[in-house]
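Fold it.
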Amino acid sequence: MSPSVTTTPAPAEALARAAAGERPDAADAEALLGVSGADFERLLELAGAVRDAGLAASGRPGILTYSRKVFVPLTTLCRDRCHYCVFVDTPGQLLKKHKPAYMSPEQVLAVVRQGQAMGCKEVLLTLGDRPEDRWPEARAWLDEHGFASTLDYVGHIARLVTAETGLLAHLNPGVMSADEIRMLRPTAPSMGMMLETTSRRLFEEPGQVHFGSPDKDPDLRLEVIDAAGREHVPFTTGILVGIGETLRDRADSLVAIRDAHERHGHVQEVIVQNFRAKPRTAMQGAPDAELREYVAAVAVARLVMGPHMRIQVPPNLSDPAEFGLLVRAGADDWGGVSPLTADHVNPERPWPHLDDLARMTSELGFELRERLTAQPEFVLDAETWIDPALRPAVAALADAATGLAAASAPSAPAPSPLVHSSPVYAADGVSRTQVTNEPRGGSTDGGIRRLAESAAADPLALDDAEWVALLEATGDDLDALAATADDVRRYTVGEAVSLVVNRNLTSSGLRPGPTPDPQTFTMDDVAAVAADAWELGATELCVQGLLPATEGPERYLDIARAVKAATPRIHLHAYRPQDVRDLADRGGYGLDGALSALREAGVDTVPGTGVKVLSERVRGLVAPGDLEIDRWIDGITAAHRAGLRSTGVLFYGHVETAAERVEHLRRLRAIQSDTRGFTEFVPIPLPGPAGGVPLVAGRSPLDEHRAVVAVSRLLLSGSIPHIQIPWTRVGREASAVLLQSGGDDLGGTLLDGRVKPEAGIEHGLELPVTDAAALVGRLFRPFRQRTTDYREPAPDRKAAWR
C-alpha cells in the first residue's frame, strides 16, 4: 500500500477536527501522531473521551477487559526472517535444544489442562508461518503424523483442545488464504494476525526489518484481513510501533485497518504494540519504541478507529508506571494475560499477575473484567460471527447478558486420559489422535514416563507414593522424567534462563567496631558495601543471618536504612523468617509489627531460607537451632501477607525420606495457593563431595539433583513458576544439565565486591553475567538478566553481555 501524498495539516487543525467529532484521515492521523506539549495532553483527553463514550454505548461503562489465556507455541519453525524475532528456531537449534518440531497433542493438553485448572478460557495457538515451505524437517513431521499442512495440524489441535477441555482456541498462524480461513473457522471463535505496518520500504529494502520475509508483504497481510472479514471471522490485528516506520506509515496502517473493518465489520480489536529490542537479533541495538510516540499511537488509533473498537495494549510490554498514560490515551483492553505460561514471543517480559493488574486498573478508575477470546459484541451476535459447531462451547463460557466471560465457568468435558497417543488415519487421510488407556505405575516398563506425563497435565493428580516413585527414578526412567519436566518448563515459563546481579552481606557478621576477622563489618561499612555493589552493576543486595546477641534488634532496621540511604534504587532482599522473629521477639514488635517496620526501613523482599525440610523430625535431627516448622510457616506466610514476596527452598540430602521431600513441596504449594508470595523455588543439596545422601543407593549426585529438580518442576507447576539452580552447590557444568531438567533460573551473580568481600556468605564464588550468558548460550537458550522480582532491569542497570 503506497502512502498518500496529502500535505500534513498543522496539529492544531487536526485536533480541532477531532474535537468536532470528525474522523481523522491519514493526513490528520500523521499530524496527531507527532504532537507534543499541550497538544499531546489534548490528544489524550480527546482519545479518552471517545473510549468512554464507546464503553457507555456498549453497556459497560468504566470496564477494561482482558482474556485469561494459555499461550501455546505450537511450532517455532518459520519460513520468515524478521529482524526482531526471538520466537523462531531453525531445525538445527531445535535439535540442540532437544525440542520437537511441533508440540504433540499430549504436550499441548498437558499445558492447557493446567491453565484450565487456573481458570483460563482461551488457548492462544501461535506459530511460525508455513514452516514446511522452508524446512524439510517440518514437512517430514507433518507427513509422519498424517497432516497435509501446518494449518491442518492447527485445526486438529484447536478441535482437540475444545473437545477435551472446553476451552476456546484463538488462532494466530500467520498468513492464510480464504479457503484456509474457511477451513479453520469451525475450530476457533476468533483468529488474528498483526498487520504491523503498511510500509513497503521495510519489506522491500535490503537490511530493513521485513526484508526476506515473504509473509510480511503488507498487501498480502491486508488481503488476509479482508478475507477474514468475508468469512465472518472475528479478527484481531494491529500495528507495531518503532520498527523503522515513519509517522505516515503508522497513519496509513491504522486507516487501512479501519477501511477493512468498515467493509466487513469483523475487526474485534486493534493492538497497538511497542517494539522491544531482543538480544541475538539484527535489531538488538535498536532503541525501544519511545514512550511518547507509543502513547500517541494508542491515542491516534482510538480516534481513527472510533468509540466502538477495542484498542488493546499488551501490559507486559510497558512499565506499570506507564499504564496511566495508556489508559488516558483511550486503551480499553489488556489483551490475553496468562497466569501460567510466558509470553513466548517476548520472553523477557513477564505478565503482570492478574490480581495486580486488577488492582492497577482499579487505581486508574476502571474495573477489570474477563472476556472470551471473541469480544462481547461478537459473542452476543453468535449467529453471524460464531460457527455453529462452536456456539455451544462459546455459550458455556459466556455471560449471556453481557457477552463477557461468565463469572464461574461450568465444568468442562471430562478429559480423556491422554497419556500416550499415536496417529491413526481417518477416511479423509488426516491424522486423529488415538487415546490409549494404560495404567499408571512406577515400574520400569514405561510406568515412570506415564506418571511424569500425568503429572505434567495435572500436578495434583499423583499421590505421594507416585511422587516418591518419580523421585527415585534411575536410568532411562530418570531421563524420561527429566525430559518431561523440561517440556513443562519450556511450554510454561519458556526458554529464557535468568540471573540477577547481586551480592550478599551476612548480618551475623555485624560488630560494634572493626575486628581482625574479615567476615565481620561495622555499621559504617554497610553503606560502603551497598554503594560498591551498585557501582559494580548490582540491582540486589541480599542480607540475612541472626544478629549477634550483643547487637540490639534495632540493628536489623539500621542496616536496611543504611543500605537504602546509600543506594535508594537497590532492591533489598533481607532477613529470613528466623531473623524477623528475632526482631519481633527481642524488639517487642510482634511478628506483624516487625514486618511493617522492615518494610518501612526499606526491605523489598525476604529470603525463604532458614529451614531445611518442613518436618519436625528432620529439624530435630539435623538443625535443632532452626526455627520450629510451624513458626517458620507462620513467619513466611505473614511476610507474604505483608506484601513481601520470598524465595522458597528445600535443603535435601540430610536424613529426610523421599516422602518428606514430597510433603515439603506440597506444603510450599499450599502456602503459595494461600498467599501467592513465592517468586521461585530453590532445591539446595547438602554441601560436600558426595552432594548429600542419595535416596537411591549408588545413584550419582548429579542424578539425585536431576530427580529433585524435575520433580520440583512438575509438582510446583502452575504454582511457583521459577525453579532456580543453586550453581554454588552443584557447579557450573552440573547447572547446565539441571537447566535441561526443568530449571530456568541461575539465581544471582554473588559479586564479592571491593568492600568487605568476605562479609557475604558464599564469598569467593562469582558468576559474572558474561559467564552465565556463555553457559546458557551453549544450551541454545536465550539468557535474560532480571531483577529480584523477575522484571526487566532499568536500562542503566543492564550488564554488557550481548
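Residues 24 and 640 are 49 Å apart (CA to CA).
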